[in-house]
Design goal:
CATH superfamily of the largest domain: P-loop containing nucleotide triphosphate hydrolases
CATH architecture of the largest domain: 3-Layer(aba) Sandwich
Order of helices and strands: EEEHEEEEHHHEHEHEEHHEEEEEEEEHEE
Strand order of the largest sheet: 7-8-9-3-10-11
Radius of gyration: 24 Å
Largest sheet: 6 strands, mixed
Helix content: 10-25%
CATH topology of the largest domain: Rossmann fold
Number of domains: 2
Number of helices: 9
Strand content: 35-45%
Oligomer: single chain
Number of strands: 21
């Protein structure tokens, strides 16, 4: 059975900043929901409010059938009574305590025998038994992540809250531990909320996502749907959509819109019939653009744009290719693909995008 969390709060700060959040989530056991957005969007404030570390000025927070906060009724359940597990980006392990002692921290309500049994069990499940007598400075980043998760889970919380759990790591370690964190979250059997501003982490860790910007929730839904169908240009930009163009609807037939962008025409699926000459935004993800040298025979399922390479920039394991197709367009290719195609600044190419991969936003 899914656990439901209901949030409708407003938190104000003396400097004038306000964080507002209003959404309802159903969280399956072992599933993760992502609080996503740029720095300063209000994600950590929202997480701390859920944890009971911040007290909003108005609203309600409910988990399952328990009211954790209700400003109108004067209800505020303290953090220790909410049964949440917390994991911060620095992991906050106590340097003077051993791994076992770190995990035991917060289990004072148990007897000595119960504590030992609980810690033995969770150390075994996280495969860190051999680290029991070591201190944090004597273990690796991946081991520290496991210990911090084990400590957060030892009291058997009903929900786990993670605030930028990989942000403090260098990029190679972050990439390596991302998959392990996903595996650990899938295996613990309790729902989790994960704060991140990293698009790759959001897509790899979460099943649901809440997008925040400037202190407000802008969109919520499944990760796949939100990334494919951003609600507006602001959300599209936050989600990292590389190409966002303004166009005008030139024609519409059987769910397919033809949008004029400069001298080019782009075909895309649109469920609701627009008004001719209506202004519309065209969103194209770089990973949905394929490149071929020269011209390509047109087909009904794809858009084909002739253009030239303006720049090529390395972006980790891939390369980002900026094109001039009469409008700016970005594609992502591997280094091998770039070499096979012989791409360089000035190379003539055909960029292809499926009509179903293009997202239109009515203005």
């Amino acid at each position: 059975m899914a656990d439901e969390i209901v949030i409708d709060i407003e938190k104000q700060y003396p400097a004038g900043a306000t964080v507002r959040a209003n959404f309802r989530l159903k969280l399956e056991a072992g599933s993760a929901a992502i609080l996503f957005g740029p720095s300063g969007a209000g994600k950590t404030t929202l997480l701390r409010s859920i944890a009971g570390l911040e007290r909003p000025e108005r609203g309600i927070i409910r988990f399952r059938d328990e009211v954790w906060f209700d400003a109108a009724r004067g209800v505020f359940r303290p953090a220790e009574a909410r049964s949440v597990g917390l994991l911060f980006q620095e992991y906050a392990l106590f340097p003077h305590l051993t791994v076992r002692e770190n995990i035991e921290y917060g289990l004072d309500h148990m007897s000595k025998a119960e504590r030992r049994e609980a810690v033995d069990e969770i150390m075994a499940s996280f495969e860190i038994v051999e680290l029991a007598g070591r201190r944090p400075r004597e273990i690796s980043g991946g081991q520290a992540q496991r210990v911090a998760l084990a400590r957060a889970l030892a009291p058997r919380p009903r929900i786990l809250l993670l605030d930028e759990p990989l942000a403090a790591l260098d990029m190679p370690t972050r990439t390596r531990l991302r998959a392990e964190l996903r595996r650990l979250l899938d295996g613990i059997g309790i729902p989790s909320l994960v704060v991140t501003h990293d698009r790759t982490e959001a897509m790899s860790l979460g099943r649901q996502i809440i997008v925040m910007a400037e202190g407000e929730v802008r969109q919520a839904g499944t990760v796949e749907d939100v990334f494919r169908h951003p609600a507006d240009a602001g959300v599209a930009g936050i989600l990292g959509v590389e190409t966002i163009l303004q166009g005008i609807v030139a024609a519409y037939d059987a769910g397919l819109a033809r949008v004029r962008v400069g001298n080019a025409e782009i075909c895309a699926v649109l469920r609701e019939e627009p008004v001719l000459n209506e202004r519309i935004l065209v969103c194209i993800r770089a990973e949905d653009v394929t490149l071929q040298c020269g011209r390509h025979h047109a087909d009904s399922a794809r858009n084909h744009f002739c253009g030239a390479v303006e720049s090529i920039e390395r972006d980790g394991a891939v390369e980002r290719v900026s094109l001039d197709c009469g409008f700016p367009l970005t594609a992502i290719v591997t280094r091998t693909s770039r070499e096979d195609l012989g791409l360089a600044v000035g190379t003539s190419v055909t960029a292809s995008v499926k009509a179903t991969a293009i997202h239109l936003i009515r203005m």
